[in-house]
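Lab notebook, bench 4. Still working through the backlog of constructs that have no structural model yet. Next entry is a single chain of 684 residues. Request: give me the structure tokens for it.
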Amino acid sequence: MNDRSKAWWLFLASFLGLYFELFIIRYVSTEIRTLAYFKNLPLIACFLGLGVGMVRWERMKSMRHLFPWVATTLLLLVHNADLLNIRHLRFTIGDYFLFGAARTSILVSVLVVTVLLGMIVAMCIPLGSLIGEGMAGLPALRGYGINLAGSLAGILSFTAAAFLEWSPLPVLAVAAVLLVPFYRRQRVSLALLACMLAATAGNEPNTYWSPYYRVDVQKIQGPDSWGKARGYFVDVNYDYHQGMLDLTPEFLRQGDQIQIFTDAARNYNLPYQLAPHPAEVLVVGAGTGNDTAVALRHGAERVDAVEIDPVILRLGRELHPERPYDSPKVTLYNTDARAFLKATHHRYDLILFAYLDSHTVFSSLSSLRLDNYVYTAEAFREARRLLKPGGTLSVSFASGETFVETRMYNTLTAAFGTPPRVFQTGYHGGLVFVEGGAKSATAPANVPDVSASFTPDARDVATDNWPFLYLKSRSIPAALAVVLLLFLGGAALLISRTIGAPGFRQEYHFQVFLLGAGFLLLETKSITEMALLFGSTWSVNAIVIAAFLTMALLANALVSWRPVRMATSYAGLFAALLLSVLVPYGLLNALSLGPRVLVASVVIALPVFFSGMVFSTVFQRVASPGSALGINLLGAIVGGALENLVLIVGTKVLGVLAIAIYLASTMSTGAIRRQAGLRATGQE
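Model written out:
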């Protein structure tokens, strides 16, 4: 191949590597729900496969024909998850709360998850070998620049597909077309690529794919006397999400509605029975419109409805029996609830935290356990700031798990300074927590006050530093620990075989390994911080990852144009890291949106730019660029494993860990120099 052909080869291979990585995180974690709650294990499984493939690309050339076989098998498994009874695997051991039914034994669950992760690794190894071969045919920095450009194109393309609400079939079709040049002479492989597409095909007329979820809508069947649709059930990622219900008094008086309508009416009407006739209402987590419809029915003159998912919002506009979103009194905001609370300065008589989904959404595109930062003490304080004098905050919440409900009680107590009142409405076994002016009002006789069953505990509070509402204690859940140890054990075995590859034991490889670990921790830290500033939206995640690749690309261009001393790059890196750790990001909320975006972007992106300069400086000295890039990805596995420490000590540890790893990489630089000196004097 000539240089131009080699460049296109590397660009396409790099595009496919990141594109498939994002596809696996979204699609496989949607179909096999337990993988979603294991957070970054699918991500680091991709890193392991890509890294091994890059390091041993020559040996793996003979195994590239396996990619279509493994990919097709994996997709067939996940597409038939219900038939195989692996959709909801049992991993609830009491220390972490998962939605969804537990259908299998824990032993079977561990086995299934381990096999799936192994298949993800096996699928990514051939992709890594394609990247490694492309890197081998080009100068190091030029090849790295093309790799970054291809990866950036991959994430931008996947982000565009999410924005356009594509289902898995067209998303995968893009990848299949781009794979054809690599398999054009292999008829069996081409046929299998077609089978891979067929594995995701299917006629699902009531299924929608939003940037966050797979959304399924089912009409609630009722007696003929209903005359028209009175409600729908909405599932997301195969978990029940909400009901879209007609709760008008006229319909409820008919006497032929099913129980869910009666329970829902009791739940949604309660805040207005405690705080009658609020003029201005804010609904965060407005969903398909139940809370908005009830607010209008109780005389609200202004309703601000905030919903993060555009598809859920559109379904509410089109299907809700009461058509609440058609009212001129309603203003819709398609954004993250926390981002809206930070941005608005309007004050309300009543703020409703509806049944926000802070559990399912974080699993689709994000690599974090953010729980969306919705139910933290800081979030409730921001809501309290928006209440008018005598205003009321109402939080509807359902989990059925005592420790989760107790933490909600404690978090509201910390935010308001006094314990909330708690009511049991009977709707999905949920509770309504009430703070503010209406807390002392008399509740209806058919709504029990269960406040006495809670005892405040100031130590058990969800915060922005530790937002893990569904984790029983500050620990790594037993199920996650078991699977993580099994996976890391398998990874160590695979890597130990890999280090025997020719060209692996080069003097700069340990430094490259550490830079990979530090880079992933920086990425995780930045997504966390940007989520706090601008919301846990799919666009924020995509922007951060794209910005990281762009900064690395700029750093690589600078080093290619004019070499920079490594000491200078490290000095800039540590200064930027200290700035990002020490700056209280809450201060930026005082700025308007434009300056806030600019300042936050600079503070968050600077460490990436300087670490990129360090990496590019090292990268141009390695003997085998493809192997070095693979080792960098293998280092990211360490960063991904260390990130689980946030479950114990909180998210602030990410910056500390990143500094420690980058310090270790500077020490490895000294070891390299000493080794080079020994070689120069003939003492080695």
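Notes after review: Residues 3-205+470-681 form a domain with the Growth Hormone; Chain: A; fold (CATH 1.20.1250). The radius of gyration is 26 Å. Flag for follow-up if needed.
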